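Morning F.,

Quick status update on the modeling queue. The single chain you submitted on Monday has been processed. Sequence for confirmation:
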Amino acid sequence: MRTIGAKHSLIIELRRLLGRRSSRRDSGVVVVEGPKVLLELLEAGSPVQRMLYDIGSASNEAVANLIAVADRAGVPLEAVRSGVLDKVLDSTTPQGVVALVPRPEHDPAELATSSNGGAPLLIAAGVQDPGNVGALVRVAAAAGSPGMVCDRNSADPWGPKALRASTGWALRYPVAETDELFAELRRLRDAGVAIVAAAPGGPAPDEIDWSAPTALVMGSEGQGVDAALLAEFPDRVSIPMASGVESLNVASAAAVIAFEAARQARIA
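Structure tokens below.
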């Protein structure tokens, strides 16, 4: 069986895609790791352009099963010399298999207006930690939100760390990216979508009527929602907390709010 090494063009391309957000954006391709996530993508019918696996991992039951499923689906397969992928991937526990998958494209306005109320469209505004961005994707998907939008000051939802944190949901669930957050929020507002920011000074989640289409803005981990954004979009929601506790993790806070909105929709 032919195996490719560290200097092969596919490995060089893999390094490029893993290294720069702009490379993933310009090429329209992202890198997905792990047999579990890749098997779920294939079973869901998601497109996979090419799969590379460590030749030494091919005897692993999960990897071997994935290779068989990918082969039946017509996905081009490449065996890689043992240890090469481990050096390329930035995960602490490489799983022996990666794939190149098309980067999804979604329109933020269409995501928000597709909802008739319930869990809000999530907006990541300056959420810089990839793990938090990935966790927000999972929260949005689990709560039944119509989608999630990330501004360019947030971590790349299709970067390796964020994809691991979302367990691949950023590829199976509507996630969009915007270069112009304020313009996008104005566009949503003009389309009848309420803009609500998670920030101090607002009512509790259960004191808000979430029955109309809403976008929930979650700000950066350290500073919260930008003051200029709050000045133009003043509606807020705040989570009551025990004395002495200043804040929640951004994904935890989003979950509290989004699931309250979903609860209201269920009992309406």
